[in-house]
Each structure stands twice: as structure tokens, then as C-alpha cells.
Write a structure and sequence with these properties.
Blueprint: E1 2-10, E2 13-14, E3 26-30, H1 32-38, H2 44-53, E4 58-68, E5 71-72, H3 76-91, E6 99-103, H4 116-128, E7 134-138, H5 146-150, E8 154-157, H6 166-182, E9 187-194, H7 211-221, E10 226-232, E11 245-252, H8 255-269, H9 283-291, E12 297-300, H10 316-323, E13 330-335, H11 337-346, E14 351-356, E15 367-377, E16 395-400, E17 403-408, H12 418-421, E18 432-435, E19 451-454, E20 490-492
Parallel strand pairs: 1-4, 1-6, 2-5, 6-7, 7-8, 12-18, 12-19, 13-17, 13-18
Antiparallel strand pairs: 3-4, 9-11, 9-20, 10-11, 14-15, 15-16, 16-17
Helix pairs in contact: 2-6, 3-4, 7-8
Amino acid sequence: MKRILIAGCAQEISSFNPVECKYEIFHIIQDKDIYEYHVGKNSYIGGAIEEINDSKNIEPVFTYVAEGFAAGTLEHSAFIKIKDEFLKKIKLHVNKIDGIYLSLHGAMGSTKELDPEGLILEEVRKIFGKNIPIVISLDLHGVLTEKMLNNCDGVSSLLTYPHVDFSDTGKRAIKFLKKLMFENIKPVAARVKIPALVRGKELITETGLFGNQTKYAKSLIEDEKVLSAGFFIGNPFTDVPELCSQSYVYTNNNKDLASNNALKMAKDFWPNRKKMQAELININDAIKIGSESAATVVFTDAADAPSSGALGDSNEIISEMINQKYPHSILSTILDSDAANLAFKMGIGSSIKISIGGKLDNRFKPLILKFEVISINEKPFMPEKWAWLQKPGKSAVLKSNNLTIVVTSNPVLQVDRSIYYENGLDPKNYHSVIVKSPHCEPEFYDNWANKNLNVDAKGATSANLLSLGHKNCQRPIYPLEENTIFVPKVEQY
């Protein structure tokens, strides 16, 4: 019986979020609780568990998982605490395991360490030595670094956007690891870095141009000579030195096969870089279109997406709607613990005058309105499909004329409609809905909404990449430098 150590450390940050995050933003799970939390769920570790359970000759060893909510840059002291807890836990299993699976993300960052996941991986390698195989899983928005590649034996990454293949990615990671443990293989990797940052609808893998890369990677994986393949578009909001897009391929000791296919994916991607930019609509134009349209109109505020690392406290679109006397019902969310706490204090049915939003990110100004408290809630909940528990803290539904807004004390993922459902609201009952997420699965909005307007708003996760102010990433890089030149170069590991 072979034993696989399972651990994880993952978070996605926006370097442009002005509020640093703390240790408390992480959900820490240890030992058998990891199994109980992830079994049967569409998560990396859920998929790993399923693959292990289908194997008769593998025993999982659950250790330590730290899953951080997307946010601003992590305080370095918090990272050190997580790293030390992580390493202390896994050290207990030295000389007792045969392989290691690490669930990472790739877009983590602390105030002093720009490659924290790479550093953790390096430390794991030091502890267990070169003879214990290590396979990691990453988000396709991750930044695959040189330190990661030098300290693991294999990579498995998401192949869908919006992300639906968490479990499949975990399964592929374990399948790769099993080959390393049971078969006489020699993994070799090739990657090609591409100086381009991309956003927009063409990244939707089912319908967009980026699907060409992920579909090709899937076809490679079906080849028994290929151990793993994928494509990273990075996270343009994680401003780190190795930020870029990149292709990668792992094979069993076939450097030419790995190199040729990594090169093909990169060369096919580069000509489409200009088309892989977001098509944004000026706020005033969006409001005019919305006011003249039949229900339901979605206003996508991707610039303030908590799932991408923003705070969720932008009131920019709401403010403009009020200024322009928007004629229809509006549904939105906002992060504002002061408003939520006051609603709790005053109670359902009370009338309160309070400022909402714009208290954490100085891009925005607080908006003062008179509200009726419709309901209050502070229960954690699960998203419609994702496997990450949401903890909104004290929350309230507030109504002011045609505006209905859910205020929360903590940021909440808006990759679906769960924040509304959990508070007794249905987006279909409103003319206009502000959605703070770059893309949701079609069934959540696009399949039934009349229009989806991608608004050019300010924020820490704006798709208007030139507005962000990158300082650390490699330059030149498209679109920050329009005339960036790409000279394909294969790196082998």
C-alpha cells in the first residue's frame, strides 16, 4: 500500500486592492476534516479523493489545507504563520509517505514574498528530498514560476473558464502522481512564456478563442505519451515578476514532444492577444442602454470582483444610476460592515440613513441614502456549484426607492446568484442586476437575461489593464506596451 500526503495552500490576490488581508481570511482544515469537507465536492481535493478511492493500492494522508478568500496582498506575518503551520504538519510524515499532492493556486502574494507558493514548494522539497514525487494543481490564472517547476515533478491545471473542472484537475494530478509512484517514468517538462496579459469574453473556453489552447491541451492529455499539459493566462491583478501567459507540456522523457507542443500552443495564442481584451462600455452609455432595454439587464462590474481579489465596496455604478434617475428596479451587493451592523442594531422594518460603499477603496466616495431594513442574516452558505464556504458575516437587505442592495460584512464570491438566494431575493424579479464577477456560468445569468453590459468601471480588478499601474511584472508585456515583441523560446525542465 502506497501513501500519498495531501496538503494545500491557495489564495488569489489583487496587488491593486489597497487593503492588505490577514490570517483570519483563510479557512484552515486539518487531518480527517479535510476529507469530510472535500469528499464528493467539485474541488481539487475532492477530485483527488475520488481518484484515490478508486485505487486499491493507495492510502491518503491528510495533513493541512489553508484556503484563502481572494483579497488584497497578504500580510507577510500572516503568510509566515501559514507557512510554518503547513511545514510543521507535513514534517510529521517524513519517511512515512510515497508521494505528495499539493493543492495550490498560483496567484498568491504577500507584502514581502512575491512567490509564496513557490517558496512553500521549495521547503517541501527540502524536507522530503528528491526521491519523493510531488505533483501540484494550479488555477489557469496562476503564475507558474521557475521555483515551482524546479521543485515539483508534475503540474495539473484547470482547463476551463469559467472554472468547472476543479475535481477533474485534482483527479489528473493524482493520476500523474500514480504513474510516478508505480511506473518507471522520467517526467520532463517544456514551457513557453508569452509576454501578454489577457481578459474578456474570448477567454471563455467553451465559446472564445482561448478555448483553442485548452482544447489542444486536452487532446494532448489523451495521448499516453503525454503526462500533463495546459495553458496559463496568469492573473493580471497579481503584479509579480513572473506574471505572463504560458504553455506547458509534461511527457515521459520525450523532450521533443513536450517542446514542440508547448511551442505550438504559444504560437497559436500570440496572434489572438489583441482579440483577448475586454470589450468595455462606458458607464454613462451602459446606463442609457439599460434604461431603454427590457428586463433583465446585467451590469457586469468586473472591476470590483471579490472572486478576483477586489473588495466589493464599489458604489460607482449605483451612484451614477441614482444621479441619472435610473427608471427601473436595481439589485446589487456591497461590502459595508458599518451598514450591516447598523441594520442589525435597528432591526427589520426600521428606517436608517447611512453611507454605503467607498469606505475601503479611495477610488470611490461613500453614498448617503435613506434605507428600509428588509431582512437581516449572518449564516454561512455554499455557492451554487463551487465548493468554498462563504462567510458574509452580518448581512442585510436594504431598500431605497428602486434600489435593493445586500450589504455584507465580509467579501462574498459572486460567481453565481447564491448571495441573493440566501437573502430571499431572486435576480429574475429585478429589471437590472449589478454582478461583481467577470464571467459567470451561462445558466446563472446569460441564458435568460436580455443583456449583459460589461461596464468600464474603476477598481482593483478592472479589465482595463492599463488603468491598474503594474510595477513588478516583466516588461515589455502586451497590452501595457502595445508594440511588445514575442520571440518564442522553449524552457526545458
